[in-house]
Amino acid sequence: MTGHSREPLIAPSILSADFARLAEETAAVHGADWLHVDVMDNHFVPNLTLGLPVVESLLKVTDIPMDCHLMIEDPARWAPPYAEAGAYNVTFHAEATDDPRAVARDIRAAGAKAGLSVKPGTAIEPYLEILRDFDTLLVMSVEPGFGGQKFIPEVLSKVTAVRRLVDSGDLTVVVEIDGGINDDTISAAAEAGVDCFVAGSAVYNAADPAEAVAALRRKAAAASAHLS
Ligand code: DX5
Ligand code: ZN
After folding, report:
1. C-beta of 200 in contact with ligand 1 (< 6 A)
2. What is the 61 CA–ligand 2 centroid distance (Å)?
3. What pLDDT is stored for residue 6 in this prediction?
4. pLDDT above 50 (res 2)
5. CATH, domain range 9-223
6. From CA 32, how far away is CA 105, in angstroms rounded?
7. Quick one: DSSP state of residue 159?
8. In Å, how far from its chain's centre is CA 34?
9. Which residues bind a divalent metal cation (predicted)?
10. Ligand 1 pocket test: which of 146, 150, 213 has the largest number of ligand atoms within 8 Å of its C-beta?
11. DSSP strands (E only) in 55-135
12. What separation in Å is there between the alpha carbon of 106 and the centre of ligand 1?
């Protein structure tokens, strides 16, 4: 059985939600598979969002598994507490640490799945070996920092490369993509072999965010059906 025979996962990003109404905005995406929470520190990326106290509060108001995407420096220090708090998956950036394996080990020891993320310009080859120590790979398809940017299709070659290793049984990571995913771009990502699709503006700018999640899932499933 390959990753393609599973239902695609949709992870709405609350970066595009109204931060003054986060509990309601989380409820508005009921039926989502993961809730994607972008943590930015104004150092690793030129933007500042929210941190552990807000994540702890959000965990109390939702049952949707939380997917924390840490766009921060020094993940060795800051990532494990998100796992301890109860996040389902904690992803940090390969570019932010010299020892990604150690950070993954600490995240897993604290009870969460561990994710590695790469920016659009970061090659995946140097990380293929250590992906054995991760549960998820988050391929950024925009420069991290802001929602509403244009999808960069060139990153799909990284998805294809990792997909091949997953399908041959050499790796077991969930392949996730983040940035510019919408009705027009999700099919190409699904065909390349993405398992989990983050969508911010495409979900929260829709009149009915829960229906937007369902529609994205249908589109991804249709595009990847022939791959299974
Ligand atoms: C960007 C964030 C994304 C962002 C995606 O740095 O990591 O999760 O919310 O937003 P859209 O889907 O609008 O590109
Ligand atoms: Zn993100």
Report:
1. yes
2. 20
3. 73
4. no
5. 3.20.20.70
6. 27
7. H
8. 9
9. 36, 38, 69, 178
10. 146
11. 66-71, 89-93, 113-118
12. 26
Looking at residue 3, what is its pLDDT? 46
CA nearest 69: which of 179, 226, 154, 207? 179
Three-class SS string for 5-46? Answer: HCCCEEEEEHHHCCHHHHHHHHHCCCCCCCEEEEEEECCCCC
Calculate how far, in angstroms, residue 128's C-alpha sits from the geometric centre of ligand 1.
Answer: 24
Report, as an integer, the average pLDDT of 195-223. 98
Q: Is 199 in the pocket of ligand 1 (CB under 6 A)?
A: yes
pLDDT at position 26 over 90: yes
Q: For residue 137, count other CB atoms closer than 10 A to its CB.
A: 28
Catalytic residues: 38, 178
What predicted TM-score, i.e. pTM, was given to this entire model?
0.97
Q: What is the pLDDT of residues 107-143, one digit of tens each?
A: 999 999 999 999 999 999 999 999 999 999 999 999 9
Residue-level pLDDT at 228: 63
Nearest to 87 by CA among 119, 116, 121, 110: 110
